[in-house]
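Please fill in the sequence for the structure shown.

STRUCTURE ENCODING:
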């Protein structure tokens, strides 16, 4: 399964504190916990199951002491060190647990304020860019401010949500008065570049009456998109009239099921005087406008022409979404597609 070879966001880093945290990825129950030390601290993602009698480790607690941090099982108090191996059995304190007495571990890292997990090592055929979590570097200028928004739980597939993020032509209708106007519905799709590593879009433009949280007038906005992961996309937008405010937004999605997902937006802004609270409120409002529409789409799984029971027609403004569907087909993505 290709999806297990990919890095996926599972939780905000700020959620993983002193106690273990339960979450699920691709149907696999996980426990996240943080180990102090290692030049700061280190986040772990393990199967949420004690190898002793199958209790959920997420119901346990994190212990710290001279022997290092350990995750304690809630059932019999077995203690597991950062490398997964059992270090102590309270009922038999002189027992030295063998190597097989260990929790199942998965790769975990932190990027962009999120914890990312990969369930299986990538095969050689996978594009090298997918060997790491998606990049998000707003620009070379100093002074960018970054705000994490979400999580947003959505009753649709992850690919449907990505395609909506890449779609400029819905702005005048779904986000009327915010990101678009019916009287300015025309968009310029720009240049779409496709490759094994994903796709990039440059020179796309849309008219927006309120391009960012603090905007006071409308403008043509230039968009650039990058898709280097089937369930993630990054955009940067700049006002074409020389407005000093620039914005970059990354969409990162955890595919919870075939037709259900959880999303985070990482917003980066340069020159915007809006407070973090205003930025969060702006993103909450925009996503609240998107949610009922994307959840109404049928089928919820994105029809990319593989085994789709229905077909969808396309228009001239759909060049980017068509390229995205081809990208999913090239990767062999099945979760969230038909």
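FILLED IN BY: designer on duty
SEQUENCE:
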């Amino acid at each position: 399964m290709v999806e297990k070879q990919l890095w996926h966001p599972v939780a905000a880093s700020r959620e993983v504190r002193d106690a273990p945290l339960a979450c699920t990825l691709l149907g696999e129950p996980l426990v996240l916990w943080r180990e102090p030390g290692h030049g700061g601290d280190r986040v772990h993602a393990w199967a949420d199951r004690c190898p002793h009698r199958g209790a959920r480790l997420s119901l346990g607690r994190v212990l710290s002491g001279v022997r290092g941090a350990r995750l304690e099982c809630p059932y019999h108090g077995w203690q597991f060190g950062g490398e997964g191996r059992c270090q102590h059995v309270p009922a038999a304190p002189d027992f030295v647990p063998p190597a097989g007495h260990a929790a199942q571990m998965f790769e975990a890292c932190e990027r962009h304020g999120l914890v990312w997990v990969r369930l299986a090592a990538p095969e050689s055929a996978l594009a090298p860019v997918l060997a790491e979590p998606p990049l998000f570097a707003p620009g070379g200028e100093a002074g960018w401010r970054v705000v994490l928004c979400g999580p947003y739980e959505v009753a649709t597939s992850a690919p449907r949500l990505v395609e909506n993020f890449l779609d400029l032509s819905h702005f005048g209708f779904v986000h009327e008065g915010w990101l678009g106007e019916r009287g300015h519905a025309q968009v310029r799709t720009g240049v779409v570049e496709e490759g094994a590593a994903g796709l990039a879009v440059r020179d796309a433009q849309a008219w927006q009456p309120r391009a960012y949280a603090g905007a006071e007038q409308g403008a043509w906005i230039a968009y650039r998109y990058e898709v280097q992961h089937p369930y993630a996309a990054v955009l940067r937008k700049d006002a074409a009239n020389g407005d000093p405010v620039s914005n970059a937004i990354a969409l990162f999605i955890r595919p919870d099921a075939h037709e259900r997902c959880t999303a985070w937006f990482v917003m980066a802004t340069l020159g915007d005087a809006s407070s973090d609270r205003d930025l969060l409120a702006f993103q909450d409002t925009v996503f609240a406008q998107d949610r009922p529409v994307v959840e109404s789409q049928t089928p919820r799984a994105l029809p990319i022409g593989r085994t789709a029971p229905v077909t969808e027609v396309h228009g001239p403004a759909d060049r980017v979404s068509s390229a995205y569907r081809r990208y999913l087909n090239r990767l062999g993505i099945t979760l969230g597609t038909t």
